Amino acid sequence: MRLSALAAAAALVAAVVTAAPARADEPDYYVAVGDSLSVGAQPGRGPTDEGYTDTLYASLAAHHPNLRLVKLGCGGETTGTMLNGGICAYPEGSQIKAAEAFLRAHAGHVRYVTLNIGANNTNCMLTGDIACGLAGMASLVADLPTITSRLRAAGGDTPAYAAMTYYDPGLASWVTGDAGKAVAAASVPLVDVFNAYERFVYTINGYKVADVNEAFSTHDFTTQVDQAPYGKIPLNVARICAWTYQCSDGDGHATPTGYRVIGETFAKALA
Fold it and tell me: What contacts 246, CB < 8 A, 6 or more positions away?
């Protein structure tokens, strides 16, 4: 889920905002930190205004008209590159440092912080590279507590913090035939382990958890729905096919509808 050079430039522009000192009359902020999902990336497109952060921002701004959205996300970001840099350009050197700088520069004026990170650590499992996925999971285990605690330390107690569980693009294998059905079924417990660890880290660090995995009905192989061009398929598979591009394009990014569902799930968690 890497962004184009345009995405890197957008991240740089967003990060530059950190240089502005806090003012007595400045607005409040919603700061979005994460990978390509946090900037609304879609196949062949970098950042868009159709991401989950845009849906969530619209919901939050309805109650806080003075709220401003600051996207610091980076396509292709792993937990390691979030901490150390290497994909998108930030004056501070990495996304976490850019976020810390912004949070400290605007202390008392940040209402919300959202985070999604980790999918790029392990998405190589979708291609059957288990060794790569295990190495990525080891990095996730080491890095995620640092990321969550550093954001909390920089932002203090003023913002509401929220993060998400991930949906399962591996369910798209179901539509490829009988062998694919077995692959799809096997993908769910792997995603469960990933999400269980993320949920644990988020919870102990005081983040509310948007259960996107549940919103996508990841475990529902029982309910059958008709969905062209696949015919009758399980609800969890149907939602991956309709709410991401995995079935049609082999791309796990969410569709505009999928992003809207994610944003609405965050809104419920923050309510």
Answer: 169, 171, 172, 240, 252
- Say if 177 falls within a structural domain: no
116 phi and psi, to 5 degrees?
-140, 125
Q: Which two tokens stand for residue 223?
A: 């309910």
Q: Provide the domain count of the chain.
A: 1
Beta bridge pairs of residue 169: none
Q: For 171-201, what is each residue's pLDDT tens digit?
A: 999 999 999 999 999 999 989 999 999 999 9
Beta bridge partners of 162: 114, 208
Domain that holds residue 106: 5-171+192-216+259-270
Domain CATH for 52: 3.40.50.1110
Cis peptide before 229 (omega within 30 of 0): yes
- What is the reported pTM? 0.89
